[in-house]
# Entry
Amino acid sequence: MSAATAHAVAAAHAGHHGDHHAPAVDNYKEQLRNNRLGLWLFFISETFLFGGLLAVRFFLWGDHRPELDQFIGLLVTSVLLLSSFTMNLAEKGMEHGDMKTFSRGLLATAVLGTIFLLGVLVFEWGLFPAIYQGHLTPWDNVYGAVVFAMTGMHALHVLSGIVFIFIVWRLGRQGHYTPQRHWGVEACAIYWHFVDLVWIFFYPALYLIGTPVH
# Structure
């Protein structure tokens, strides 16, 4: 076989594989667009949920608010904002094929999210009176009802986010994701950032806006 013939055969062989590879890439990109669209539609529905809770807060409280612990509010908010940074590290680690950064970033995010949850449960809900005696209950008055509704719904989303993180972490350890294909990691990061964004609105509504009522 001449060199020219060998070159032509190799080019045809490469083109044959390229024809099979291109549809697969196109299908993945189409699926990725659909996944992102579905996720953002989900966030739109969630915005109505959390926006409704904010509307209830301002309708029922007006320019007043319960006397919540300012230090605890600032502490748990700082912890949750820090978790967005570690989540971003995890996503960037996967994008660059750095599994160590990916794994450490996700685990750090899960730990910070757990600390946030414990802060809400212990200091705002008073579930462990031996540690801290809370002064609000969901049935005593309108202040307790709104605080428990807003923090409870947000805490439920944080908890589901932590579960999501551990699922993604386990799949990543099993080699399920690559730097080119890691939709699960991207979706987990976007969801976590959304939960953090919601708290940015909840924090001033609960802790800062209005005159405290004893």
About this structure: DSSP finds five helices and two strands in the chain. Residues 1-18 have pLDDT under 50 and may be disordered. Strands lie at 64-66, 211-213. The first strand starts at residue 64 and ends at 66.
